[in-house]
Amino acid sequence: MGYPDEGLGKRGYWNTFYQDVRYDLPDEQDLMDALDLQYGQAAELLHRIRRVLAEKKRASEADFSGFEPYRDSLVGLLEGRRRYLGQMDINIQSPAVWQYYEETLDKLRSYGAAIVRLDAFGYTSKIPGRKNFMNEPETWEILGRLNQMAQARGLTLLPEVHAAYGEGQYLQLADMGFIVYDFFLPGLLIDALENHEASYLVRWAREQKAAGIRSINMLGCHDGIPLLDLKGLVPDERILALIDLLVSRGGLIKNLHGQKNLYYQVNATYYSALGTSDAKMLLARALQLFMPGKPQVWYLDLFAGENDLDAVKRSGAAGHKEINRTNLTREQMEDRLRLPIVQKQLQLLKMHNDCPAFDFDAELEIQARQDHLLSITWRKGGACARLEADLSTYAFAADTDVDGRHFHFAQEG
User: Fold this and answer.
1) What distance in Å separates the CA atoms of residue 174 and residue 151, rounded to the nearest whole number?
2) In this predicted model, what pLDDT tens digit does every residue of 49-96 receive, in sequence order?
3) Residue 367: strand pairing partners
4) Active site residue: 5, 138, 160, 306, which one?
């Protein structure tokens, strides 16, 4: 949240992410004209202003010793030249906003959309003096109203809510009938592959089926890899070890709202997070497809993209997410399509799409033997899908049977 300086007759504004306040500074001549100063005085004042702004402070916090009579006039001059950049939150209480939502849902339906993601939905409700993340009951009231609008158009909503497992908000969403964004799986898969055991992964799979949770899962995405979401499911020391591992492999961490040691996500491609190992990447994809949920595939994961640090540098201070948003040319995509790691992922994705045993209402059996040996079986009607994986060697075999048609895929350790 950001607020302009008090006492200037300006209304506050909400800015959840990417707040960037800049001053269009006057020069010495401007100050001489506006405040009736000599050149030396104007130069000294401007020097002090530049110094305090470089420290990310407000102009009113500058040192005005010896220039006290000019303080209010100068601050007013500077504030009149201030610019607010980046993302700014809308006023959910405004009827114009709800009209905009109506128009947006209509447009998405006309494009053929079936599922609509509500980005950063947990920050929707804004009330002075409140925590303003998942305000209750306001957040649920807003979601209910949006859901009525979506259902009237035959659309399904996917609220994006980043919260620790231990807070249980994923269960609240599921109990209300919503599809849950599975932000636990990306970290659980890295944990299983790096520690060669799947106890937490198995626990999460069984919980989803037992509780009837419908989810959309993923590996990487346009944002970072969520790891603090695992708090309450995976021990804290194990989570911190994963964060350190991803950073050692080139991942970037950005403090949440400027608070040190509070990490929203680790920004990295999933392939780089796995140490650019084809064997790990392919097993991670197979495990994603055999876990409960509808799989979401980020294009750079599919093309085995690596951390793009040059893009980060080009984008400046707020460009950390560009590490996993590389723009691929048509020629680059055609070249990468020939890579074995890409071809094999496509084979697994086709296997999943062609087999009805992965439906939400299918029967799941999952078990871990000797910690590192994982077995997953799905059944629905006459269709069956099986995965046998060794988390220590990354060898696995995937098989499906549908109406007498058999598919087999294997990776050696």
Assistant:
1) 16
2) 999 888 878 888 999 999 999 999 999 998 888 877 767 788 888 999
3) 375
4) 160
Name the catalytic one among 119, 141, 334, 359.
119
Bridging pattern class, strands 252-256 and 180-181: unpaired
Count Cβ atoms within 10 A of the Cβ of residue 208 and give its class: 0-12 exposed, 13-18 middle, 19 or more buried.
buried
Helix axes 95-110, 138-151, angle to 10 degrees: 40
Give CB contacts under 8 A, 24+ apart, made by 144-149.
144/176, 145/98, 146/101, 146/118, 147/178, 149/101, 149/102, 149/105
**Residue 322 is which amino acid?**
E
Residue 72 CB contacts under 8 Å (≥ 6 apart), including other chains:
none
167-216 tens-digit pLDDT? 999 999 999 999 999 999 999 999 999 999 999 999 999 999 999 999 99
Torsion-angle region of 254 (φ positive above 0: left; ψ -120 to 50: alpha; else: beta) = beta
Active site residue 141: no
61 catalytic residue (yes or no): no
Rounded CA Rg of the chain: 26
What one-letter code names the amino acid at 91? N
